[in-house]
Design brief:
Radius of gyration: 18 Å
Distance between the termini: 35 Å
Strand content: 15-25%
Number of helices: 6
Largest sheet: 4 strands, antiparallel
Helix content: 25-40%
Number of strands: 7
Shape: globular
Strand order of the largest sheet: 1-7-4-5
Order of helices and strands: EEEHEEEHEHHHH
C-alpha cells in the first residue's frame, strides 16, 4: 500500500502539553475502515512513529504527536509538519528483559491483566522501567508497576 503524504499543523490538546495533527482525508476511503487505524508515520522525513489514527469527539481522525517526536523534529504547537502515513499491519510485540518477565511470573494476576492491556499501555510500563538509571530505581519501579496494574491503572 502506498503512503499517504500531507502537511499539517501541530495542534495543542486543551491546555496540557499534548499535541496532535488532523488527518485531512477520509480513513474509510483510504483504509476501508471507520474506527481506529493502526499506522506507521514519518514526521518531517526523519522521525518514525507507530501509533493510531483515532476519532476522539473530533470531526476527523487525529494522530498524536508525542513530546519525543516534537523534540526530534524541533517543532511545537502551531508549527507545520510533513507527514507520511501507511497502515501498520504488523503485530505489535514488546521485548521484555528477563527481570521483568520474572516479576510477572511471580505475579500471575498482574501478568494476566498486563496481557489484556493495549500495546501502548504495556509499552509505557516497560519503557518506564527501562529508563531507570539506577538498579534500585528499576527494582522500585517493577514493584510499583505490579501494584499499579493490580489496582487497575492502565498506564504510568
Amino acid at each position: 500500500m502506498p503512503s499517504v503524504d500531507f502537511t499539517a499543523v501541530i495542534l495543542q490538546h486543551g491546555s496540557i502539553n499534548a499535541a496532535f495533527i488532523e488527518f485531512p482525508f477520509s480513513v474509510e476511503e483510504i483504509f476501508g475502515k471507520k474506527g481506529r487505524i493502526k499506522i506507521k508515520a514519518v514526521f518531517d522525513g526523519s522521525a518514525e512513529y507507530r501509533g493510531s489514527l483515532v476519532r476522539m469527539k473530533t470531526e476527523c481522525h487525529i494522530l498524536g504527536v508525542t513530546q519525543e517526536i516534537r523534540k526530534q523534529i524541533g517543532k511545537t504547537f502551531g508549527d507545520e509538519v510533513s507527514v507520511s502515513v501507511i497502515e501498520d499491519r504488523e503485530e505489535r510485540t514488546l521485548e521484555m528483559a528477563e527481570d521483568i518477565t520474572f516479576v510477572f511470573n511471580e505475579n500471575p494476576e498482574a501478568a494476566k491483566r498486563f496481557g489484556t492491556m493495549s500495546y501502548t499501555h504495556r509499552k509505557e510500563y516497560i519503557r518506564w522501567i527501562n529508563e531507570a538509571k539506577k538498579p534500585e530505581t528499576r527494582e522500585n519501579r517493577k514493584k510499583k508497576m505490579i501494584e499499579m496494574i493490580l489496582s487497575g491503572k492502565k498506564g504510568v
